[in-house]
Automatic annotation (TrEMBL):
Belongs to the carbon-nitrogen hydrolase superfamily. BTD/VNN family. The active site is at E79, K178, C211. GO terms for molecular function: pantetheine hydrolase activity. Keywords: Glycoprotein, Hydrolase, Signal. Residues 1-22 form the signal peptide. This is CN hydrolase domain-containing protein. InterPro entries: Biotinidase-like_euk, Biotinidase/VNN, C-N_Hydrolase, C-N_Hydrolase_sf, Vanin_C. Residues 31-306 form the CN hydrolase domain. GO terms for biological process: pantothenate metabolic process.
Amino acid sequence: MAPSQTLVRAAVLALAVLQALALDTFIAAVYEHAVILPRTIHKVSPDDALALMNRNMDVLEGAVKEAAKQGAHIIVTPEDGIYGWVFTRETIYPYLEDIPDPEVNWIPCTDPTRFGRAPVQERLSCMAKNNSIYVVANIGDKKPCNSSDPKCPSDGRYQYNTDVVFDTEGKLVARYHKYNLFRQETQFNYPKEPEFITFETPFGKFGIFTCFDILFREPAVVLVSELQVDTVLFPTAWMNVLPFLTAVEFHSAWAMGMGVNLLSANTHNTIMSMTGSGLFTPHGPAMYYYNSKTKEGRLLVAELSARPRLSPNYPAAVNWSSYATSVKNYSRENKTFPGAVRRDIFTFSELKHKAGNHTVCQKDLCCHLTYQMSNKSKDEVYVLGAFDGLHGSVIKYHWQICTLLKCKSTDLSTCGQPAETAQTKFAKFSLSGTFDTNYVFPEVLYSGVQLAPGEFEVLSDGRLQSKNGTSKPVLTVTLFGRHYEKDLPHPLRSFL
C-alpha cells in the first residue's frame, strides 16, 4: 500500500473514532493563578529558574488534580502562569525550553530528554497523563538561528511566548506562538506568520490563542469564522481597563459576538489590576470570577456544550445595523460634548431625564438609545457615547463603539474615566448603532464590575436590550465593534 494511502486511511480511522466517542457536553475548567514572581530582575541560573517554575507548577498541579476530581475534561491555566512577566530578553532565557512541533508524536512524561532538557514540559505532560485531563499552559519557546537567516536576532535565537496543550495521555497535541505581542513583551519575538492552531477531541474542535490576540483578526477571527472551532482556549495576563476592557466584560462579550465557547484563564495580581477569568459561551458566562480584593487564585469548573453551533438554541445571526438605520435620528435634539476614554475622544450626550430617546453620532456611526431609569440617583450622571476611529498609541486598530456610560462624577469632564460603582438601575434599555462591521460584541457591566447573565438579549436586528430591567446598578451598556479592515499595519511586526 502506498504511504499516502496509509496516511489517508489512518486519518479516516482517527476521525471515525472521534465521531464514535463524541460527547454532546464536556466539563471545562480554568484556573486563575496568583503567580509567584521572581525575586530578582537579574538573570538567574537554569536551576534557580526551574525552582521558581516548580513552585508555580506545584500550585497549578493542585488545581489540575482538583479539576480532574470534579470530572473536568480540560483545564486552562494563565499566560505567564509559570514564571511571571518581569523580564528582559536576556533574563528570561533560563526559563525557556525547546518546544517541538506536535507532529513529532511526543509524550514528555515518558520520554523527557528526547528533545533536550525539558523539565517543564515533562511535568505538565505528567500532570495531564496522571490525571487523565487535557492541560493547557503558557511557557517560553526558544529556537536557534544563524546568519543564514537574515531575520535572526543578534543573540542567535528566536524566543516565543508559547501555549502548549497536552492530552489525557500526556502527549503534546498543540503548540501556539503568540502573534500579537503586547508592547511591553520585548523579551519575545513575533512569529514570522500567524499560526492557526486547532485540534480535535471527542468533545469538539478546539483553537488556541493568547491574551492580546483576541483583539485582532489573526488568529482570533480566522479560527472561529473560517476554521469553525467550537471552543477557544485562552491563557491571558489581562490588566483590567474600565469602562470597556475589563477581562470578564470583554471576554464574555467576545464569546457571545463570535458564537463560540471561550475558556479564559487570567493571572491574579491586584497590584497590576489582573483578575477576571471565566467559562464563556455564546449565551453568556457559564461561570466567571472577578475579585480585586483577595490575593488568592480560583478554580472554576462548568459543563458546556461541546458543539454549540449544533444546539437548537444557538443564537441567530445578527444584522448589527438593521434597526439603527431604520429609526428616527434624534441627534439634533440632544446637545453633545467631547469626552476622553483614555486617549480616545468620544462624542457624548447627557441623559438628563429618567426616560427618553437619544441619538449620538461620530463620523459614520450613529448610536441610538431608548431607556427608562427605575431609580435615578441625583449624584450620578449617565451619557450616551459614540466612537468611530483608530484606538491605540503604538499599535492602532479601528473601533466602533456605542455606549450607555456612567460618569465618574457629576462633572461632565469625568465622563469616560473609570468608575467601579453605581447606584442607578434601569427599568429598560435598548441600544443599537449603524455599524459597518459584522464583528460587534455586546457588553453589560454592573456595579462592582459584575456581569449580567440572562438579563439582556441581542435581537437579530442589532438591538442590545434588557429583558426585565436590571437587577443591579449599571456601569456600562456597550456595543463594541471591531472594523479589522481599517486597522493600520502593525508598526513593530512590519520590520520582520
